[in-house]
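FORM 12-B: Structure-to-Sequence Request
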């Protein structure tokens, strides 16, 4: 599935019309229409605006373009600045290797405590 097809699928799922997407992103409605008609993709500078309106991450928008064969599991997470997760990750990245391993083991222990 190409990116524009994924956009239209998400628009349909979320009940967003081409006109609404155009108004909320500032992208001309004719441009959005061209994506569908000509089976072209938006330029990269439009992706974040589209993601904001459709309330998806860039990964969620682009995920269907990643080949499933051999792609494996996702090896990254997205944490928004200002969240507790973001704060923990920022602090963790400053730790030395040994302390990171200790923290990882501690978290594993917490998970097993259920």
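FORM 12-B RESPONSE
SEQUENCE OUT:
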């Amino acid at each position: 599935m190409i990116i524009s097809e994924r956009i239209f699928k998400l628009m349909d799922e979320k009940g967003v019309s081409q006109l609404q997407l155009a108004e909320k992103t500032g992208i001309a409605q004719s441009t959005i229409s061209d994506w569908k008609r000509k089976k072209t993709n938006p330029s990269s500078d439009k992706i974040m605006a589209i993601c904001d309106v459709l309330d998806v991450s860039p990964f969620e928008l682009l995920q269907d373009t990643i080949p499933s064969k051999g792609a494996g599991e996702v090896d990254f997470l997205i944490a928004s600045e200002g969240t507790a997760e973001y704060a923990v990750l920022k602090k963790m990245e400053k730790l030395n290797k040994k302390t990171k391993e200790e923290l990882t083991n501690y978290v594993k222990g917490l998970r097993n405590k259920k």
